[in-house]
Prior knowledge:
The protein is an alpha+beta fold and 184 residues long.
Amino acid sequence: MTGEYDGLVLDIMMPGADGLEILKKLRQAGITTPALFLTARTEVYQRVEGLDAGADDYLSKPFSTPELLARVRAMLRRKDNFTPDILTFHDTVLNRSTYELIFEESAQILSGKEFQVMEVLMQKPGVIVPTEEFMTHIWGWNTSVDTSVVWVHISNIRRKIEKIKAPVRIRFIRNAGYVLEADV
């Protein structure tokens, strides 16, 4: 895909390509363009599969043109507020739906707080995130939780990154905070 698009309308059963796989690859590449599946596959599990692949909406054939246009308009209205379920940094994927940290065929499930810490880091790769930012984002302004809890969660995340052999690392920078970097 080249250029920037407002929205995508894909068929799951396209000639020579599978719309599900195409959308999964686009999402893994960090492309967040809203997408609608237009398809003859109507079973509930098939609709769920399309939505889990990253689609924002799903319309079964046969359909009415006014309904298709209304769904496209609704999808485009949500475009600026779209948050992808997948965050990717150096082929390491954080799935917001499953709380999984994935590299190639390996995955580790993160706890709720581990997920929140990793989410902050993956939204700002290469940027130093102060410990106080984790504290306020995850535990709130008036928390009585000690800042060492951040270190504990990062330590757990580091072990999980090692288990899946992901090419990323979380580095501590004294008197500054933590940064997610490529492990080169």
